[in-house]
Design brief:
single chain, 30% helix, 6 helices, alpha+beta, eight-stranded antiparallel beta sheet, two-stranded antiparallel ribbon, 215 residues
Length: 215
Amino acid sequence: MFLSKPYLSIGSFIILFSLLLLYLNSYHLSEDYTYSKNPEFANTDNCSNSVKPLTIMLKHDSALSLLGKNFSEIKEVLGKPGDEGSSNWYGPHNYISYEFNKGRVRFNSPQGLENKPAVSIILSGKHSILCARVGMSFSEIKNVLGKPSFGPEQGMDGLYFMEYFLGNTNNGTPEIVISFSAEKIDGPTMEAFIKWEGFDYEKVDNITEFQSVRR
């Protein structure tokens, strides 16, 4: 009878200790994934004001990891979108849109494409792309990403734009363009527009090739 109490106490301790190890292990593993069931779209914990090698930033960037994926794949990662439909804004396209604490993320696919691949992404609020956050000024973005490929210059709509070209260039067209926009040249940026500029509309099956190279 006297042996039963410490015996139960040791057993309870072993169970609690095992549960604690399981929790800590699962928590550590979850840090290796960009998303969870309740995601902040971009995890910027590893970002700093210092310029990092582009290959490192590409590997861990949330937005670029979904560029080129079709809508069904994006839904598997992010869940049900807050809004979904079609629009003629900047040309007829289908879209799915998500609202996160840091703002809106919108994925766009030109109408008529099978499986609706996300050819462009729009980030607003305070979302980040390659550690450059929407809301930063052009000069602050330069401190993170370095010298831009184009701009900042004023467009026909009165907004100022600054762009970065990524990947290979074919006939003067870069593979990916990241464009930041602002109302004033020294003001905060409003959006980041990410476009797969090198997408071949006549050869949709190159998505698989693009994704394999990107990884």
